Amino acid sequence: MIFRINRTHVPEPKKKKKKLNVVREDRISKLPDPLLHHILSFLPTECAVSTTVLSKRWKNVWISVPVLDFRNWNHEDGYEYSDDEDGYEYCDEEDGYDYHDDKQTTKFMDYVDRVLVQRNMLNINKFCLNCENEYFDLKRVNAWITTAGKCQVKEFIFSWRNSHPSNDEVMPDSLFTCQSLTTLDFQFPELGVLKILRLTNVAYEDQKSAGKLFSSCPVLEELCLTDCGWENVQFIRISAPRLKSFTLNGCLGSYMESARVKIDAPNLLSFTFCDWLPEDFVVDSFPLLQDAFLYYNYGDIESRFLP
């Protein structure tokens, strides 16, 4: 007889895997402050300030960041400025909140005030400010710019979209005498009421930037350019239909002898030229001209133009 035995396979009980308690190391927080400051300098200020919620280590790191960037505050990014310690609170974009109204602008101005106070006059390498509605307080904006100057600001970028009639009162005189300032970037939509413009030691990056400035001043009556740089500009055109007084002093160096200069100002009454004479100097008719003062180096003319 043959006996057949069916053996049922009984699986061995699975061994329970031991859970390993893995502690993830926070390497970023262990970085030295100068490196953290450098990293945060690439973020808008509101994002840099928000790192205070990470841990005690980050509580005051943002204070010493040498870059203050307030350009994107009014974009619809879902943040509403508040009086909280972090300076803002999240809100749903679907709640219909108007990011450009008086209330929101006032909260933002309060926020900038708190940021500057908490920094306690530490040096600023770069200061960026965007004012895009009519609710900004000119005195407070002026105070921020003055504070940046006192903090030895090196680069200042300012966008002003306000149609307020006192645009020329926004910039304090202290900014233009700031010894630390190396870059000054103004972004105006149109200086529609500006009648007097005096620029000294201003360098133009290219022909477009220079032309945009003068075309933005349709009612300009007095223009004075002293020791301005035009190294990258080969064609200089001054077109101002209401210009009455124009002074060009020390702006055209010998490196621009091949540049073209054209002045279109039919209502010009007074013209002062004290500069290097360009090879192509086009001056349209000045039927109302009363005074003209021309100062140039005769030796330069004799060597370049006379046989």
Tag the structure with descriptive keywords.
five-stranded parallel sheet; 14 strands; 307 residues; four-stranded parallel sheet; alpha/beta; single chain
Can you walk through the features of this model?
The chain is of the alpha/beta class. Helix content is 21%, strand content 21%. The protein has 7 helices and 14 strands. The chain has helices spanning 33-40, 45-50, 102-119, 138-150, 173-176, 207-215, 298-304, and strands at 67-70, 79-81, 88-90, 126-131, 155-160, 183-187, 196-200, 222-226, 235-239, 245-249, 260-264, 270-274, 280-283, 291-295. The strands form 4 sheets. Strands 7-8-10-12-14 form a 5-stranded parallel beta sheet, with no helix packed on it. Helix 5 (173-176) links the parallel strand 5 and strand 6 (183-187). Helix 3 runs parallel beside helix 4 (138-150). 20% of the residues are buried. The model is unreliable at 75-80 and 82-99 (pLDDT under 50).
Through-space gap between termini? 136 Å
Oligomer: single chain
Order of helices and strands: HHEEEHEHEHEEHEEEEEEEH
Kindly report the spatial arrangement of strands forming the biggest sheet. Answer: 7-8-10-12-14
Shape: elongated
Number of strands: 14
Gyration radius, to the nearest Å? 31 Å
Low-confidence stretches: 75-80, 82-99
Residue share in β-strands: 15-25%
Major sheet description: 5 strands, parallel
State the secondary-structure class: alpha/beta
The tally of helices reads 7
Average pLDDT works out at: 77
The helicity comes to 10-25%
